Amino acid sequence: MFITAPGDTDVLMVVMAIVLAVSVIGFGVLYFRLHALPEQIAHKGQKVQFEIVALLCLIALFTHMHIFWIAGLLLAFVEFPDFGGVLGRIAGSVERMAGVKPGAGADGVPDRGKPMHASDISHAEDEGSGSRKSPRVVASKKELDHA
Q1: CA–CA distance, 38 with 71 (Å, rounded to integer)
Q2: Model pLDDT, residue 120
Q3: Mind listing the pLDDT tens digit for each residue in 68-104?
Q4: Distance between CA atoms of 4 and 143, rounded to whole angstroms?
Q5: Is the pLDDT at 23 greater than 90, yes or no?
Q6: Does the pTM exceed 0.85?
Q7: Three-class SS of residue 126?
Q8: How far does Cα 119 stand from its chain's mean position?
Q9: Closest of 35, 27, 31, 33 to residue 68, by C-alpha
Q10: Can you tell me the distance from the alpha carbon of 71 to that of 143, in angstroms, rounded to the nearest whole number?
Q11: What integer is the mean pLDDT of 22-38?
């Protein structure tokens, strides 16, 4: 049995306190590194779904529902194709076929979420207050050939 003399330092208690502190910090670091594992895998692979994996890891960390962590890990290993390049090339080809400068296809389309300016409102009122029809679009020669 280990009993210290009165007034002496309990060496076993000091050693056990240090071992306890080191083990708690070590297990905490291991826990957080394990929770960040899917995020690190997705980041190293430059995955498109990196932000989704990071969000799933955070949800798993705060809710203690491990299914989110497993879903994030599986999502980190899956390689999704990049559709942005292919769709961009298709859009550029369609704009070229329509005779529009590449990248300027949506210049004449009004933005529905954007509020109209006062000059646009007064111009619309001047055109005729009785009927509010949109102006007629004249088809180009190229469009008439396909009709």
Answers
A1: 9
A2: 55
A3: 999 999 988 888 777 777 888 888 888 888 888 777 7
A4: 99
A5: yes
A6: no
A7: helix
A8: 37
A9: 35
A10: 49
A11: 93
Instruction: For the chain, give every domain's residue range.
Output: 33-80
Longest pairwise C-alpha distance within the chain? 107
What amino acid occupies position 72?
Answer: G
Tell me which amino acid residue 78 is.
V
Please tell me the distance from the alpha carbon of residue 1 to that of residue 40, in angstroms, as a whole number: 49
Residues contacting residue 85 through CB under 8 Å, at least 6 positions apart = none
> Rounded to 5 degrees, what angle do the CA atoms 56, 62, 66 make?
60
Nearest CA-CA partner of 53 in 73, 33, 35: 73
The position carrying tokens 């994996």 is 53
Distance from C-alpha of 122 to C-alpha of 116, rounded to nearest angstrom: 10
Reading the block at residue 19, the tokens are 């071992």
- Long-range contacts of the stretch 110-114 (C-beta < 8 A, 24+): none
Question: DSSP letter string over 27-84?
Answer: HHHHHHHHHTHHHHHHHHTT-TTHHHHHHHHHHHHHH--HHHHHHHHHHHH-----HH
